[in-house]
Specification:
Layout (H helix, E strand, L loop, with lengths): L1 H29 L6 H7 L4 H7 L3 H25 L4 H17 L2 H9 L8 H27 L8 H21 L6 H17 L2
Helix pairs in contact: 1-4, 1-6, 4-5, 4-6, 4-7, 5-7, 5-8, 5-9, 7-8, 8-9
């Protein structure tokens, strides 16, 4: 008796995934305002009724797209962090992995940045964005606290440095996105890493 239910669940996941994939393409290619139920219906092989069965309205789709982009970028950075050994390597990897996550996943970055225009008027997007940044800061703070506990660096304001590290990631990634080719992001990132590590080593 469980098989039909499992099959139905798989179909729901498949349909939701198809809708989100097409919605992402629309936002990446044409901007957030172009994402409408009608635009989705025109690109998909199923009806408006199927779309609204899986998502109550456009706003639910908008937020599902944002969630999928954040999950993609986070997954890309996690593997690089796990491969690092020393504390300094982890700091380097955290900064590099997060910048690369934005730059090498151009569609995801374009989508994420397109949401910024709605932060002021959309509480749900504002909360999601705040949670994203808070998560990055907490990850950096955990690493900095570990270094302080190990005696690797003692004279550091953990919260301020974590905020700075997030600022480096967003600053380099957005400059690279908005003015493509104008900066050498790898050189800029290397200088940023050297600056952060020099500050952490200082007593």
């Amino acid at each position: 008796m469980a098989e039909p239910q499992q099959s139905s669940e798989r179909l729901r996941e498949l349909r939701r995934g198809q809708i989100i994939t097409v919605a992402r393409k629309i936002v990446a290619e044409e901007g957030l305002e172009a994402l409408t139920i009608g635009a989705l219906e025109a690109r998909l092989e199923f009806s408006r009724g199927v779309i609204t069965y899986h998502f109550a309205n456009k706003e639910d789709i908008v937020h599902a797209v944002l969630d999928s982009v954040i999950a993609e970028i986070d997954a890309a950075t996690l593997s690089e962090l796990k491969a690092s050994s020393s504390l300094e390597d982890k700091v380097r990897a955290m900064l590099r992995a997060n910048v690369r996550g934005f730059i090498e996943r151009a569609e995801a970055a374009r989508i994420l940045l397109s949401y910024w225009g709605r932060i002021g008027g959309d509480k749900r997007i504002r909360k999601t964005n705040a949670t994203l940044y808070a998560g990055y800061r907490k990850g950096a703070a955990r690493l900095l606290e570990a270094g302080r506990a190990a005696g690797a660096w003692t004279d550091v304001d953990v919260d301020a440095m974590a905020t700075l590290m997030v600022g480096i990631v967003i600053g380099i990634a957005t400059q690279s996105h908005f003015d493509k080719g104008a900066i050498d992001w790898e050189r800029a990132l290397e200088e940023a890493v050297k600056t952060v590590l020099a500050r952490l080593r200082s007593r």
